[in-house]
């Protein structure tokens, strides 16, 4: 293509871009007087419409939502914007990761600016709520790096948690998980919220949970922690725990909170260790009443 042709193509591209920009601006005008809550989008002029393949028809304006997978220095999480918190948080614990000079006192809770402001929680949501900002990936699990520990203080790793539970029984469970690194090759911990139904006086089952703050941050009814232990022998062991989000006697043996892995999968809508068939001989699931 000659110089004149390239210049002509450039001019056409600029004109189309300008027309599309004007069209996008027009789309955002709301006819609030006629219909509150109705967004009217004028048709883009035919001369500015771009050719789209048939398969792109459904997605030409973008999809309304996708799973928000976020990778941090210390953990990986899947964020649920409806709840203003994670669906799950996954950590890898080893003896080396538990050692280091990272200091909790140098960390501050912070909102996650990578989440759209419609869907994120803020520190003000927790103020005066009566709930702790409860870590899912525990800060003490990541002393190996100050950045890794700081990442656990992002509010995308946090849910409102009963203070007594957070500081007592739940803390005991976190310490227990760290202790498992002494006798296992690898320890993987997946933690998340549960919103479990209960029967109301009318005889029906309901899922009810509190929300806090101006952003309506969901308060889970329970929390789960699934621990995947890789033995030095190659055997894989699962330990799955559920605790209610209210005061729990810290003297209660942790085995009392063991549940079947299937019960968490059904309630949370998740599948754990999907790369391993659960009926294989090298997988052992530890449940209550063992």
From TrEMBL:
Its EC number is 3.1.30.-. Mg(2+) binds at residue 166. Residues 71-279 form the DNA/RNA non-specific endonuclease/pyrophosphatase/phosphodiesterase domain. Residues 72-279 form the ENPP1-3/EXOG-like endonuclease/phosphodiesterase domain. Keywords: Disulfide bond, Endonuclease, Hydrolase, Magnesium, Metal-binding, Mitochondrion, Nuclease, Transit peptide. The active site is at residue 135. The keyword Iron-sulfur does not apply. PROSITE patterns: NUCLEASE_NON_SPEC. One of its GO terms (molecular function) is nucleic acid binding. It is found in: Mitochondrion. Its cofactor is Mg(2+). SMART domains: Endonuclease_NS, NUC. GO terms for biological process: apoptotic DNA fragmentation. Gene3D superfamilies: Extracellular Endonuclease, subunit A. It comes from the Eukaryota. The keyword Protein biosynthesis does not apply. GO terms for cellular component: mitochondrial inner membrane; nucleus. Belongs to the DNA/RNA non-specific endonuclease family. This is Endonuclease. The lineage of its organism: Eukaryota, Metazoa, Chordata, Craniata, Vertebrata.
